[in-house]
Amino acid sequence: MALFSLGYFEIFLAIICFFYLRNLRSFKRLAWKLPILGTFPYLIMNIHRIHDKCAEVLEKTRGTYHLKGPSFANMDILGTVDPANVHYIMSSNFVNFPKGPEFKKIFEVLGDGIFNSDLDLWKCQRKLARALLNHQSFHKFLVSTSWNKVEKGLIPILDYVAKQGLMVDLQDVFQRLTFDTTCKFVTGYDPGCLSIDFPGVPFSKAMDEVEEAIFMRHILPEIVLKLERWLGIGQEKKLSKSWKILDEVICKYISVKQEELKKGTKSTNDEEGFDLLTSYINLGDNEITTGLKRDDKFLRDTIINFMIAGRDTTSSALTWFIWLVSTHPTVLNKIREELKSVIQVNEEAENFRLFKVDELKNLVYIHAALCESMRLYPPVPFQHKFPLQPDTLPSGHRVHPKIKVIFSLYAMGRMKFIWGKDSWEFKPERWISERGTIKHEPSYKFLAFNAGPRTCLGKEVAFTQMKAVAAAMIHNYNVEMVEGHPVVPNLSVILYMKHGLKVRVSKRWA
Ligand code: HEM
């Protein structure tokens, strides 16, 4: 009997070995699969370098790869960076690819805000948000807030660390800057996080933790997440703690603002009063349409959606941009030359100077360098969709309502078949036409700001802020990387540097 059972054991071992060896051969080519567990162990083993791994696999499969996890984990993912598929899903067959209930579950902390809604609720929110962001008064508010933050927040810090010879984490500085400006746009208050004493910012920390937990919700099977929630451990525990902090702070903002507006202590007409919260509280009944309730929950959801939209994306983009420019001297010098061209002949060029939004608006090279930086390091590194009905993508892949379609924006920017042989290189020139103007790249190829009807509404807000900060830094300071500091992406729904961006800064002019 023992001999008999040993026989079964050996047969079982032989089968396992067969699958392992078979998969070992394909290991070098693609992601390997195991019986029962599918590609799940491969995914977990490569999680620390998931973005590069995706790029590697998707380059080899010419843009689309089907990843199947264990059946109990409900993990059926189609990864694609094929521009034809992106165009189909985001634009031409948009109605069949809503964000869906799965997205809402993963991003539940965003409530019913614009990022997390579909159909009429989304349409209504988008209409409102677009009208507010395109309003002339909001534009004035944006210009003055961006200028003030650079002049009174960023410059004193850079001067201070330069004078003291201190090392500084620029990622932290940019997060503080965009946190302050976004708070000001959204709520009308400036929390003053960008200051020399680097105060602790529980709200900001809570947002980072929420984003990391949301990332893990994309990777881990539901059963593991449920267990974490049940046992009160891991990322799910952090998520619920951070969620509470966000709710408490936002609730305070709403009640203070409502009180101020009731008492009439804040003007709602001048540009100082043109924050989104004030505008949303003051919406007329005819402006609120289908499905929207004008209550505190709606205000809370709107605030958190805009805070994530504005703070994180812009500070991530600035961090990667300054690192790339500082480590590519030719690009740095070209930006400096372009900035010099703005300075009037009767003005001393080699002097401390800040640049006005209007002076930077039409500069081609700095715009090209920002696009190039977001091609390689898109602040939102991936997105996902679920089809409503079974469908066939232009690449020929079949999809159905249980399959998660993921676009890796990070991988997309690095595909040789999309961007050419030099796709991994930082070359702003690829964005400049022969006539010297910005070359338009279709959004289904350069997806950093999304594509189709859900295209980012804050693109101009982001470029305005990024140019103001970048020009001030590049014209007035030298940035030197701290030797040996590792620059690697983190694991989150926003592409930050895992260890921050540690640099030393010196002034260019006496
Ligand atoms: C470099 C900066 C930015 C980048 C790379 C960026 C990128 C994106 C992306 C990828 C989406 C689609 C997200 C999704 O559907 O899941 C999006 C949507 C959105 N963005 Fe941005 N964004 C940036 C800055 C901003 C700013 C500063 C604001 C507002 C002040 C903003 C407002 C929005 C809004 C409201 C949406 C939702 C659009 C919709 O679903 O209809 N974004 N953005």
Automatic annotation (TrEMBL):
<dbReference type="InterPro" id="IPR017972">
    <property type="entry name" value="Cyt_P450_CS"/>
</dbReference>
<feature type="binding site" description="axial binding residue">
    <location>
        <position position="456"/>
    </location>
    <ligand>
        <name>heme</name>
    </ligand>
</feature>
<dbReference type="GO" id="GO:0004497">
    <property type="term" value="F:monooxygenase activity"/>
</dbReference>
<feature type="transmembrane region" description="Helical">
    <location>
        <begin position="6"/>
        <end position="24"/>
    </location>
</feature>
<keyword id="KW-0472">Membrane</keyword>
<comment type="similarity">
    <text>Belongs to the cytochrome P450 family.</text>
</comment>
<keyword id="KW-1133">Transmembrane helix</keyword>
<keyword id="KW-0560">Oxidoreductase</keyword>
<keyword id="KW-0503">Monooxygenase</keyword>
<dbReference type="InterPro" id="IPR002401">
    <property type="entry name" value="Cyt_P450_E_grp-I"/>
</dbReference>
<keyword id="KW-0408">Iron</keyword>
<dbReference type="GO" id="GO:0020037">
    <property type="term" value="F:heme binding"/>
</dbReference>
<dbReference type="GO" id="GO:0016705">
    <property type="term" value="F:oxidoreductase activity, acting on paired donors, with incorporation or reduction of molecular oxygen"/>
</dbReference>
<dbReference type="Pfam" id="PF00067">
    <property type="entry name" value="p450"/>
</dbReference>
<dbReference type="InterPro" id="IPR001128">
    <property type="entry name" value="Cyt_P450"/>
</dbReference>
<keyword id="KW-0349">Heme</keyword>
<dbReference type="InterPro" id="IPR036396">
    <property type="entry name" value="Cyt_P450_sf"/>
</dbReference>
<keyword id="KW-0479">Metal-binding</keyword>
<dbReference type="GO" id="GO:0006629">
    <property type="term" value="P:lipid metabolic process"/>
</dbReference>
<dbReference type="GO" id="GO:0005506">
    <property type="term" value="F:iron ion binding"/>
</dbReference>
<protein>
    <submittedName>
        <fullName>Alkane hydroxylase MAH1</fullName>
    </submittedName>
</protein>
<keyword id="KW-0812">Transmembrane</keyword>
